[in-house]
Amino acid sequence: MSDLAPGHPPAPAPRGPLALELRGVSREFGAVTALRDVSLRVSPGTVHAVLGENGAGKSTLCNIVYGALPPTRGEMVRFGQSYAPGSPAHALAGGVAMVHQHFSLLPNLSVRDNLLLGAWTQSARRRTLRAVDRARDSFGVEVDLDAHVGAMSLGARQQVEIVKALLREPELVLFDEPTAVLSATEIDRFLAISTALARAGTAVVLVTHKLAEVRAVSDEFTVLRHGSVAGSGRVAEASSDDIIDMIMGRQVAELDGVLAATLGVADPTAASTGRTPGPVVLTVDGLTVRDEAGAVRVDDVDLELRAGEIVGVAGVEGNGQSELVAAISGSLPVTAGRVVLGDREITDLEPGDRNALGLAVIPEDRHHEAIIGDLGITENLLLDRLDEFRSPRGLDRKAMDREAARLMQEYDVRAAGPRARLSTLSGGNQQKVVLARELSRDSLQCVVAAEPTRGLDLGAVDAVVTRLREAADGGAGVLVVSSELPELFALCDRILVAYRGSIHGQVHVADPDAHDAVARLMMGEPA
Question: Where is the secretion signal located (predicted)?
Answer without folding.
Answer: none
